[in-house]
């Protein structure tokens, strides 16, 4: 990856809706070489996809929490079952496996406290291998969905 590829990626992070023509102009390449580079970045997985970034509050998801998960057991089958179950919960918008304790961090969005409590009691607490859940509420976002430094 060279500096031109990094420029292409930086521009796409600013505006993923750019046409290839607009992108080529911004990185000072002709259309064909820019298009070839973009397709190669996509093929190599540097660009994983394109999507709209939504405002949770604008779509009625005004409650956000972080849930720390400590596992009772961490054998391969239990971890796979836990991770598969977490991936199937739409309100889990991010999930990370951590070193140390706790084992996982889940970022959850929901309509309100009642919806979160129902999700917590009926789904999160029943996930495979879970020993303990600990949650905290998000007061405010200081940095949200920042572009990667290139």
Describe this structure in words.
The longest helix is centred in the first third of the chain and has 14 residues, at 31-44. A four-stranded antiparallel β-sheet has the order 2-3-1-4. It has 150 residues and is α+β, with helices and mostly antiparallel strands. The chain is 37% helix and 20% strand. The chain has helices at residues 3-14, 20-27, 31-44, 76-87, 113-122; strands at residues 63-71, 92-97, 104-110, 130-137. Helix 1 crosses helix 2 and helix 2 crosses helix 3 (31-44).
Summarize this entry quickly:
This protein has 150 residues and is an alpha+beta fold.
Provide the descriptors you would attach to this structure in a database record.
150 residues; alpha+beta; 4-stranded antiparallel beta sheet; 5 helices; 37% helix; 20% strand; elongated
Shape: elongated
Q: Pairing-aware structural class of the strands and helices?
A: alpha+beta
Mean pLDDT figure: 96
Radius of gyration from CA coordinates: 20 Å
Point out poorly predicted stretches.
Answer: none
Q: Helix proportion of residues, in percent?
A: 25-40%
Biggest sheet details: 4 strands, antiparallel
Placed side by side, the strands forming the largest sheet appear as 2-3-1-4
Strand residue percentage: 15-25%
Topology, number of strands: 4
Cα-to-Cα separation, first versus last residue = 11 Å
- Compute the number of helices: 5
**H-E order:** HHHEHEEHE
């Amino acid at each position: 990856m060279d500096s031109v590829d990094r420029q292409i990626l930086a521009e796409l992070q600013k505006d993923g809706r750019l046409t290839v023509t607009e992108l080529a102009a911004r990185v000072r390449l002709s259309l064909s070489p820019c298009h070839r580079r973009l397709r190669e970045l996509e093929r190599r997985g540097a660009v994983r996809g394109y999507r709209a970034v939504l405002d949770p509050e604008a779509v009625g998801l005004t409650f956000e929490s972080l849930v720390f998960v400590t596992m009772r057991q961490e054998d391969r089958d239990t971890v796979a079952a836990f991770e598969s179950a977490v991936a199937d919960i739409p309100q889990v918008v991010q999930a990370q496996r951590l070193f140390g304790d706790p084992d996982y961090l889940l970022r959850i969005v929901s309509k309100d406290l009642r919806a979160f409590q129902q999700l917590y009691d009926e789904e999160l607490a029943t996930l495979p291998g879970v020993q303990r859940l600990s949650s905290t509420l998000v007061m405010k976002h200081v940095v949200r969905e920042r572009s990667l430094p290139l």
